[in-house]
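Need the bound structure for 5'-O-[(L-methionyl)-sulphamoyl]adenosine, inputs here:
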Amino acid sequence: MSKAPFYITTPIYYPSAKLHIGHAYCTTIADAVARYKRLTGHEVFFLTGSDEHGQKIQRTAEAQGVTPIEYVDKIVDSFKELWRRLEISNDDFIRTSEPRHHEVVQEVFRRIQQNGDIYKGEYTGLYCTPCESYWTEIQLDENGCCPDCHRPVEKVSEEAYFFKMSKYADAVLKHIEENPEFLEPKSRRNEMINFIKQGLEDLCVSRTSFDWGIPVPGDEKHVIYVWFDALTNYLTPIGFLDDAERFKKFWPADLHLVGKEIVRFHTIIWGCILMALGIELPKKVYGHGWLVINGGKMSKSKGNVVDPMLLIDEFSADAIRYFLLREIVLGQDGNFNRDALIQRINADLANDLGNLLHRTLNMINKFHGGELRETAGLTELDESIRAEAVATAKEYRALMDDMKISDAVKLVWKFISRCNKYIDETAPWKLAKDSTQAQALANVLYNLAESLRIIAILIEPFTPSTARKILEQLQIDNNFDIIQFTDAEIFGRLEAGHRVGKPQQLFPRIEL
Ligand code: MSP
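Answer from helper R.:
Posting the output first, comments after.
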């Protein structure tokens, strides 16, 4: 049976500085979704990358006495290293400085220009260099600064190319209004509807004041506006220019996952570009909230950035992934706090999950020489844990399909707590002392091992390395290229006679 394709993207990150935990948040969510989709039998294409052009990068490189490409090469290596360590399972990494991407951007520009939707004119406007954004007078904040980053804007006047956004405004508005699933959550949708209703001007899509960018075809003193260049990255690796079949398979993208401040670019500007190209819009743009520190945005200037690499060194990638996915409700802002992270590691990972695995394997080894036995004559309690496992997998699927990731995490941990309670209720150490209870003991131990097998599959999208470790200790093949979600939907896959391994600690407790 051919697998349904699923194309998911993160934004491509600016290599203007090292990535912080807020960037890692965005990529971790996308990774959890990508892994879940693979488990549920989709052919996933998961894309992330780097957005390398623009005046800001050029200026930073100059200040450091290196060329832009020398400067970005080093930083992009650090992105790749972070994603590797965080176990991000992206299928490709697009760099906007790559020739494959230049070709696509120039072709997109050319096609829109040939249709008459890109024209030459004179641009005078207010530009925020750090955000690479033009603003109109009314959009500025109360100090006359950039409404996003609140830094001063510059007045620029130059010959430039314009994209006829105004021509597509009504069509994009209609698309947003008529397709509620196109833009989520709802709050973002309302923002964008109001934004378009205020009126869209044509967009300036070229600059002449610097040259670190993709030249306008046939007029090389202009470089293409960095957002026009960046958004087009989503078309580059799926065969837009060179593989029509592959392009048809993966486009329209199933999900562009982006931070809330760039929803405008991904729905309105990107929507207009795609309409001008005569290409379908992505199926969904999801605008997530920000990770904040004590209620404020993380920024280099505030000196409150949290380096994800150091956190991984200290606590492990899975602990960080778990915290981000569990603590922050997708779509809302969430606070990053070191003490809260440590508490989650201790309570949920070391205690609830770690102890469940440890106690279960310990008892199977101690009472049954590491072997699972045939079950028979189940009690109501035994039946209820089995029913809850199956119900958990079912509800989990519904939540994940609905992007309720933190709820899905909580649901699995509710089942983990249920299993721990089952141990306390059945007291296998007492059953082991009573020879008339041999079958009851076999039933409990089997149910626990089987529940752990199911838990391991359900947590793989969140904490992949822990999932593999649990299966390894249960001595079950832990290759997630083969394991499917359906393996978690059926209770009773483990065979009597299966031998489990010795327990090994999953997460050490952290002293506060
Ligand atoms: N280069 C553009 C995206 C172009 S996509 C065609 C860009 N880059 S960025 O590096 O500034 O941001 C990338 C993503 O990181 C954005 O989705 C942004 O919302 C996200 N985050 C940056 N700081 C964040 C937090 N503190 N919290 C959550 N996400 C954050 O924008």
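Comments: The radius of gyration is 26 Å. Residues 339-488 form a domain with the Isoleucyl-tRNA Synthetase; Domain 1 fold (CATH 1.10.730.10).
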